[in-house]
Structure formats: C-alpha cells, structure tokens
Design a protein that fits this description.
By secondary structure, this protein is of the alpha/beta class. It has 13 helices and 17 strands. The structure holds zinc ion. The site of zinc ion has 7 residues, from loops.
C-alpha cells in the first residue's frame, strides 16, 4: 500500500515526460466520447491524407470505396523504406506470413488502445493487469508503475505465482496461454482467485476455451487485431467496438477489410484480412458511437486434449513453422489425426520439394505430441486461412 502511494506521484511525473503512449491514450480517451459523425469526419480527413500519400485522390467516401481492394500478396511488392520503422512478420496465424513495414508509433497506438479498453472494462489504475506476450518483455519500468505485469506466455510458473499473489483485475493475451494459466491455477488449488478475474483475449478457438473456463472466471472479452495494424476491435463490457481513430474498417462480401491511415511505409489500403465478420451501428448499452464488430471468424485452430497426445493440440503446433522454416516453405496447414497417431503437414515449398529441411520439425512433433508427422507438398494455399490446425477425431479421411 505504501509503495503504491509512493510510486504513483513519482512515476506519474516521469511517465508524463517519457512515454509516447500517453499522448495517444489521451487522444483515444477523448475521441472515445465523440459522436459518430465527428469520428467519420476525422476519418475522412485522415483517409484523404494517406490516399494522397499513395497517389490516390480521395475527396469523399465514394472515392474511397472505389479504390481497389488489396491483400497480403500485394505486400510482396513493397520495398524496405528509409528512416525509422520496425518490420513485423505477420504470422503464421494465416499459414502464409508476410513482412510488413510498420511505423514505430503503431506500437504506441496499440499499447494505448489496450489501456483504453482495460479502462472501458472497468479497470482502475491501481488494479493490476497481467499481460501475456510472445518473447521477452522490454519495458519493465513502464509496466511496473502502471501495475501492468508483462510475462512471457510460456512461463506458466511465473504467471501462476503472480496471479495467486496479486489477483489481477484482468488477464490479457491469446486464448491458449490464458487457458493454460487458468488450468494451472485451478490445479494448484486456487480456483477461488479466478472468480474476480476477467480476460481480454484474441482467441483462436474461443468456444472451446470459454466452455472450459466459464465456470471459473468473471468475464470474457474479445479483442480483434492483426499483426500489421493497431487494434481493430476493442471490447467494452458488452461488445467489441470497431476502433475508428486509427483506420477504416469495412465488411466487403462478409470479409473484414481494413485501412490503416497512419502507415506511410506499407500501403494498408482497403486490405483484405481474410477474416469473416459482421458490423452494425452501435446500439451498445455503454453509449459509445463506434460500430459493433461481431461473429468474427478467422485464424481458427482446433484444440484437442485427449489420451493419444502428450500435450493438448493447439496453435503452438504451427508456431515453429513461421519462425524457422521461411527459407523453405511459404505456406502451411496441419491436420491432426490423434486416433491414428498421425500429423499431416501440408506445405507450399518455395523452391523445389525439400522434404529433408523439414526433418527437425517432424522430430519435434514426434517428441512433443508423440505422433508421427508426414509432409505433403501442395501448389497453393488458397482457402487455407480458417483451417490452420484441424483435428480429426474420426478415422483418417482419404485425401
Ligand atoms: Zn459498448
């Protein structure tokens, strides 16, 4: 209690001068109260600017809606820019990653939007939030004063310890690591701790995880985003709202299409996400004007926990492919047949069918799951998006 009382004024002061996230957070908090019309005016102004930057003349929304749609294959033509930027390899969650150039402010916007959504979800600044991320956390001081605890999503023991000791208001992260953490807390005999904790996740198999955790947790909130953009959908207590201050979100033929009006390095213009979703005018009890995003389907991975596998099957099964095998393959998809003891890996080879290069992955699957991995070459990856990890619990199908 004393440390909280002491650290707050000190770090409030340091924070004010140090962190760019705050400028964005202030803006987002203010814009969160704008009317829909005002948000649209703001968007149109920004859309004009970014379209002009890429050589398109846009004066009205009609002009914008006439621009061609783009998709990730268009990103291959983008050259590395000069100046300050970071590169992000869009994951593996599509089974077909791309390198994208991102202005460094995108990270600050993303971070600020997370903070805003936690506030929308009722979190007070003194209440801790546990955030699970891939890799090592970088900004420990910043997180410490803000009562955000960032822990690598694989360090389950540290996560459990933190949850039991600090009882965070909210856990933020991908679905599977949150599930793993909660199961470990339950197993340690502390399930009572979970009943006041809510989660904000971007989940690849939300129904399964939700069904498992619903009896224990206080609430579930869906965040939606892509690696190459600031957050696209931010939750309030009742729905997921489209973020209007960083881009334009459209639904075209059932597909979510996004425009980032701050990325001047990579043209994310009417960019097809490959995810399905629906959008409607806000009638949300929270009173915010941002449209509501719902029925989002994308980047699904099955989850399976049965006696045939050494550990539950999930998204992690394809994760090494995006990290270690991009020289060899450009796209992939996995089918798991636990009853037959087989994992089928379908890939698009970059040059020549180099099955041997995938040997370490096959060994890894064998060691982790206890199943044999067979590799199949394919010509293209069309329509793979929503089938990245499929589990078949019946007999093997002919293919
Ligand atoms: Zn709302």
């Amino acid at each position: 209690m004393i440390t909280t009382a002491l650290k707050r004024p000190v770090y409030d002061a340091i924070d004010r001068f140090t962190f760019r996230q705050n400028d964005f957070l202030r803006f987002f908090l203010e814009a969160g109260g704008w009317s829909y019309e005002r948000l649209r005016d703001y968007q149109l102004q920004k859309v004009r600017e970014i379209c002009c930057h890429w050589g398109y003349e846009v004066w009205a929304w009609d002009d914008f809606h006439r621009l061609p749609l783009t998709d990730k294959r268009d990103l291959d033509r983008v050259q590395p820019p000069a100046g300050r930027y970071s590169t992000q390899t869009t994951s593996g969650s599509t089974g077909e990653p791309r390198t994208v150039y991102i202005p460094w402010q995108t990270w600050h916007r993303k971070d600020a939007l997370f903070h805003r959504s936690w506030r929308w979800l009722g979190r007070e600044p003194h209440q801790p939030v546990l955030r699970l991320i891939a890799g090592r956390p970088h900004y420990a001081w910043y997180d410490w004063w803000r009562n955000d605890k960032v822990i690598c999503r694989d360090e389950v023991e540290r996560q459990v310890e933190y949850v039991i000791k600090h009882r965070p208001y909210l856990i933020h992260g991908p679905g599977l690591p949150i599930r793993r953490l909660c199961e470990a807390v339950i197993q340690a005999g502390y399930e009572d701790v979970l009943k006041d904790i809510r989660v904000e996740w971007c989940s690849t198999s939300p129904e399964g995880h939700r069904a498992r955790l619903e009896p224990y947790l206080a609430g579930f909130h869906e965040q939606y985003g892509l690696a190459e953009l600031p957050t696209v959908g931010s939750p309030c207590p009742y729905s997921t709202h489209v973020v209007m201050e960083t881009g334009v979100v459209e639904v075209v033929d059932g597909e979510i299409v996004v425009t980032d009006f701050n990325n001047t390095l990579t043209p994310i213009l009417r960019y097809r996400t490959g995810d399905e979703g629906k959008m409607r005018e806000s009638d949300c009890p929270c009173g915010r004007a941002f449209p509501i995003l719902y029925d989002v389907k994308g980047r699904r991975c099955d989850y399976y926990d049965g006696p045939e596998v050494r550990q539950p099957v999930g998204w992690w099964l394809v994760s090494p492919l995006g990290h270690n095998y991009l020289d060899t393959i450009s796209a992939w998809r996995v089918e798991v047949y636990p009853r037959d003891g087989v994992v089928r890996l379908f890939v698009v080879f970059k040059e020549g069918e180099d099955y041997e290069a995938l040997g370490p992955y096959r060994d890894w699957v064998q060691a982790e799951l206890g199943l044999t991995c067979a590799v199949f070459a394919c010509d293209n990856a069309d329509r793979w998006k929503r089938n990245l990890v499929r589990v078949y619990t019946d007999e093997v199908k002919d293919s």
